[in-house]
Design brief:
The chain is mainly alpha-helical. Helices cover about 70% and strands about 5% of the residues. The chain has one domain. It is built from eight helices and two strands. A hairpin with a 2-residue loop joins strand 1 and strand 2. The chain is globular.
Amino acid sequence: MNGIEISPDAPIWQWGPVVLNRTIMFTWVVMVMMTGLAWLVTRRLTTGTEIPRGQNVMEVLVSGLQEQIREVGDQQPGRYLPFIGTLFLFLAFSNLLTIVPGYTAPTGSLSTTAALATCVFVAVPAFGIARKGLLSYLQQYLQPSVLMLPFNIIGELSRTLALAVRLYGNMMSGTVIAAILLGFVPLFVPILMQAFGLLTGMIQAYIFSVLAMVYIASATQVEKKHDVFLTTERDI
């Protein structure tokens, strides 16, 4: 049995300092497909009684994401939907396309999962400062005591690392197990494992997005008595 390639980061083309690997190539493939599909769905939007099937699917998806954000964050979803929705759709598309022969999911690379976790790491304080203000946001690092400052900072960094490693580990474990089974039982078991991998991929996309919203919600939490003043038309 040939060696199992567990990372898509091996170069497939190189010209001087410019390196192309499967992670980069298929990340761009996913982005182009998502952009094209979004254009196809939104080019003929209508408010009539007869709506295209693509618009119907999109409305169901957006409504579901809004409801999840509202439940997890206890806030109006408007300002968070673009970020959380993009995270979920990118991960879902990346994992669903594994049914295509020759395709390698970018989420099987630690560089991709680390980049997504870094986006969450940057978004958390950005949303927190936008909602609470800079001083009010920074004060939470001093709670319940100023002595907790280094521990709160370490906590921020560690959960970013946990996000990246959790997604990478879960995606790669399924890939490696399927590759091993393919060498021993090359017919039915790998098909079942691939179906299970698709389900796992969707679950991981959901979990990653929910955790991102949980972190954002903790950073944007304000006292209830101030909510009436902080809720604006952007939240709707």
